[in-house]
Write a structure and sequence with these properties.
Blueprint: H1 2-29, H2 54-71, H3 78-104, H4 112-130, E1 145-147, E2 151-155, H5 161-186, H6 192-218, H7 234-255, H8 264-281, H9 288-291, H10 293-311, H11 323-329, H12 334-362
Antiparallel strand pairs: 1-2
Family: Belongs to the glycosyltransferase 4 family. MraY subfamily.
Keywords: Cell cycle, Cell division, Cell membrane, Cell shape, Cell wall biogenesis/degradation, Magnesium, Membrane, Metal-binding, Peptidoglycan synthesis, Transferase, Transmembrane, Transmembrane helix
GO molecular function: metal ion binding; phospho-N-acetylmuramoyl-pentapeptide-transferase activity
Length: 363
């Protein structure tokens, strides 16, 4: 518990204290946001705002997590390291994209397929590592079963070791790509993705802490007794979640409207990757549909808009996608859109965590 509180507090202090320094550094390096010409006209005033703020969140998370574990003398297991690997790995993919945008002064960095290949490489490595390193009870960080609130009977390994492993890797790549790109799509208004991510990743502090309490009384080796969870390192997943949330809260101080710094793809892909990793390792990946419901809503609006545009040969459902731009163009103030979307995201997170707890009560 001390490590959890320290990780969150250290990360919060780090981003609150050092973000102004990074803003000055990024501006000196010329790392300013490039704005799409076809976007809302009000956004053109944001041109040149410091970007790649995800670097600050990643540094704050990594430094704070390891500092908290070192001070408390805690053992560092594999599961949180995998979350950090995913966060740093996808953050690096996003950094390349952001760097190309700032260097070339255009709104497009990496090509679509190049970005996907980067995501697949990181996600595949994560997937293969996650089914290694069993603990003394034989529990690996991830399960090859599909999971909702716990593991379901659907196990990829029922199809054989080679085919099962390939399908498992593809499954993880789909989850990671969908989640990271959905957060990336949501990052279009000041504070929208940052605030929504605080709520979604905060859910895994609750889930990890709850799973840890139940595992303590049941134990992973008797996971079929008294509703305990067969999850490896749940408390450590809660600790790394707290470190991420602390960093996001501190960053939001400067990212809220009018933003002094943006997440950039560095931040949005890193956050999405961490969110996906937490869901996979806590055996709740399908629950992401609720916990990350706002991101699903945002990405879904883009898919629907494009599909409708092609089917009707030029007609649109929304004035602009993602859907937060639709409401901007309808005359809503940016802050109004952000706060209302936070409320929607918070309600969906509450529904997800509530479903998780109700399943325990009913089991």
């Amino acid at each position: 518990m001390r490590a959890l509180l320290m990780a969150g507090a250290f990360s919060l202090v780090f981003t609150l204290a050092f973000t102004p320094l990074f803003i000055r550094l990024f501006k000196k390096l010329g790392w300013g946001q490039f704005i799409r010409d076809d976007g809302p006209q009000s956004h053109h005033a944001k041109r040149g705002t410091a970007t790649m703020g995800g670097i600050i969140i990643i540094l704050g998370t990594v430094i704070s997590y390891f500092s908290a574990m070192w001070i408390t003398g805690s053992h560092i297991p594999m599961s949180p390291l995998l979350v950090l690997f995913m966060m740093v790995g996808l953050g690096f993919v996003g950094f390349i994209d952001d760097f190309l945008k700032t260097r070339n002064q255009r709104s497009l960095g990496l090509g679509g397929w190049a970005k996907v290949i980067g995501q697949v490489i990181v996600a595949s490595t994560f997937a293969l590592l996650s089914i290694q390193f069993p603990n003394i009870n034989g529990v690996t960080p991830a399960s090859t079963k599909i999971s909702l609130l716990r593991d379901l009977p659907l196990d990829f390994m029922q199809l054989g070791a080679i085919i099962g492993t390939i399908l498992f890797v593809i499954w993880i790549c789909l989850i990671v790509a969908a989640t990271s790109n959905s957060v990336n799509v949501t990052d279009g208004l000041d504070g929208l993705a940052t605030g929504s991510s605080i709520l979604s990743i905060g859910a895994f502090i609750v889930i990890g802490f709850w799973q840890s309490n139940q595992a303590r009384f049941g134990g992973a080796d008797v996971a079929d007794l008294y509703r305990s969870y067969d999850v490896r390192d749940p408390l450590d997943l809660a600790i790394v979640s707290a470190a991420i949330v602390g960093g996001l809260i501190g960053f939001l101080w400067y990212n809220t409207s009018p933003a002094k710094i943006f997440l950039g793809d560095t931040g949005s892909l890193a956050i999405g990757g961490a969110l996906a990793a937490l869901a996979i390792l806590s055996r709740t990946e399908l629950l992401l549909v609720l916990i990350g419901g706002l991101f699903v809503f945002e990405a879904g609006s883009v898919i629907v808009q494009r599909a409708y545009f092609k089917l009707t040969r030029g007609k649109r459902i929304f004035l602009m996608s993602p859907i937060h731009h639709h409401f901007e163009l309808k005359g809503w103030a940016e802050v109004t859109v952000v706060v209302r979307f936070w409320i929607i995201g918070g309600l969906l997170v509450a529904a997800g965590v509530g479903s998780f707890y109700l399943e325990w009560l009913a089991s």
